[in-house]
Amino acid sequence: MQEAMRRIDALTQQLIEADQSGAGLEAIAVAHELGRIRQLLAEAPAVIPATGGQRHFRCESCGTITHGAAAPARCAQCGGKTFFSADLEQPRVESAGG
Ligand SMILES: [Zn+2]
To answer: Are residues 7 and 32 in the same domain?
Structure first.
């Protein structure tokens, strides 16, 4: 999540600078970067594991979190079939600097 936020900020800055300088920015490069950011967000762990072995799975399409021992066959919200594990495997130390 942190990496995705950092890259969104960087891309936003690039767009602002491209606008102000009139230099422009290749649309396809922006599209590729957005695709990478999307992947980072989809895979980003965001939930502390529950006790009792339950895990959390985030729908790749709509972001809905489903609890269970395994990923559901279909997302209850949108019917999507692709899920990413959304558990935090261990506490992360987040830097306040930057
Ligand atoms: Zn879904």
So the answer is: yes
